[in-house]
Amino acid sequence: PDAVELDEVKGDIEFRDVWFSYIPGEWVLQGVSFHVEPRQTVAFVGSTGSGKSTILSLICRNYEFQKGEILIDGIDIRKIKISSLRRHFGQMLQDVFLFSGTIRENLSMGDRGAGEAQLCAALETAQAADFVAEAGGLDAVLVQGGVNLSGGQRQRLSLARALVRGGAVLVLDDCTSALDPATERRVLDGLERRPGQAVLHITQKVRAARTADRVLVLEEGGEGGL
User: Fold this and answer.
1) Which of 8, 114, 150, 225 has a C-alpha 20 to 30 A away from that of 19?
2) How large is the angle between the packed helices 151-165 and 181-192, nearest 10 degrees?
3) Alpha-carbon distance 97 to 144, whole Å?
4) What pLDDT does residue 222 have?
5) Contact 6, 170 (CB under 8 A)
C-alpha cells in the first residue's frame, strides 16, 4: 500500500551484490554489481547461460531476485509500484511474440495513445517501414505469432514496439541477431540518434558492442562482479 509511484525516471541503474536463482540453490547470478548512468548505452556480452537475459528481466521485475539490491534513481525497485516501474521501460526480450491482429495493434500494445507519426517513426528506426508498406501498411493483419513474417521481420517489429513504448530506459535482448549486417548497421545508427534514453542491450556481435558507451562482460553468473 505504500509503494512508490514514479512520475519521472532519469535512468540511473545500480546492481549491488545481486544473487538470483530460478531453482533454489542453483545460482544464475552470484554477487553481480554494476552501475549504469542516465542516457548511457551499455552492451552486455558473455557466453550462453551466463545470466545476461536474467539481468535485464530483473531490472523490470519480471522475476524477483533473492539477495542484494537493484536501484533505479537511488530507489530500491522492490519499493516501487510494478506498473509504475515498467511504464518507464521499453522492453524487447529474447522471445519475440506477435499477436493475431493488425500491425498497428501490435505496435501500440500498452500505449493506446500512440499516434500514426509515432508508429511510423518507430518503424523507420527499426528498419521495418519498407516491408510493412509492402504488406499493406499499419492495418495489415498478422496471424498468431507473426508466422507469416520472416524471423528478421518479426524481430524488427518487436523492436519497433519497444520504441513506441518509449520510457527512460530501452531494454533490448539480442535485438539484431536475425538481421543481415547492412540492416543491423542502420538499426544501430537509428538507436544512437535517440536522445535522452538509456539503452541496455545484450549482444553477441562485435559491431553492436562497439556502438555502446560501455561493455559489461558476464562470466559464470557474474561471480566476482562485472
Assistant:
1) 8
2) 0
3) 9
4) 60
5) no
